[in-house]
Write a structure and sequence with these properties.
By secondary structure, the protein is of the alpha+beta class. The protein contains 3 helices and 4 strands. The protein has a 4-stranded antiparallel sheet, covered by helices on one side. The mean pLDDT is 95.
């Protein structure tokens, strides 16, 4: 399993725009056969801080995701909504074996 963990800090006056964009990206990504999870998290301490937890079956599924129209919209729009650069880290599931799905 391939796991992406993305942290974002959104400009306070752009939160509504961000929520609309992330909902669009979430809904479309969840329809991809290789996507197993797409969680959108919001900090309890800072309402402008968000995280995305995305799980894909294989590295190829991540690549397929990055070729979609909804990802292109995300990529072309997200930086204008952020107060600081986003941080992305990619992980491979160790335990439970095969992600336990």
């Amino acid at each position: 399993m391939q796991v992406l963990f993305v942290t974002l800090r959104v400009k306070p006056d752009k939160i509504d725009d961000f929520l609309e964009l992330v909902q669009y990206n979430h809904q479309n990504t969840r329809q991809e056969p290789g996507n197993l999870r797409f969680d959108v998290l919001r900090s309890q301490d800072d309402p402008a801080r968000f995280a995305l937890y995305e799980v894909y079956r294989t590295p190829d599924d991540v690549s397929v995701h990055q070729q979609t129209a909804h990802y292109a919209r995300w990529k072309s729009t997200i930086d204008g909504l952020l107060a600081e650069p986003r941080h992305r880290a990619m992980f491979t599931t160790l335990l439970p074996p095969d992600g336990g799905w």
